[in-house]
Amino acid sequence: MGIRSMIHKTVLLGAGLVLTAVPALAQSVQHHAAMAAGATAAPVFERALPNVPGKSMTSVLVRYAPGGKSPPHRHSQSAFVWAYVLSGSIRSQVNDGPIKVYRAGESWYEEPGAHHQISENASRTEPASLLAVFVADTGDRNLTVYEQEK
Fold first, then answer.
1. Which helix (H) or strand (E) holds 4?
2. What are the pLDDT digits (tens) for 4-25?
3. Model pTM above 0.90
């Protein structure tokens, strides 16, 4: 079994176990009406980092229906974000960087305060999902702020 396969299975198992055990985390992620356009976000884990005083790690499972997308958004100024594609393909653009498509097993990161301009399922026929892991100030509840619709 390759390292990528082991990581994928570990992430899926951990996300599944924590998702059933931590329903109270729903308040730690701001939801937006536009998320109903084929995307859902559900917190699955939150823990203060004992070796990094004042910082916590929060994980969010994002699921996209075929053709689904999230509205443009920014992450907290205190949040470093690592995203790992669990299934399907995700089209993403952060700040003014290139538009990229990430497939299952691939990942990217976002610096604090990054502007996530595009986050969407690259397929119109298959669902996609990713695990977003935030390292942010403990108590920061505005990890994702969606832009106002124009």
1. helix 3-21
2. 554 554 454 444 444 433 433 4
3. no
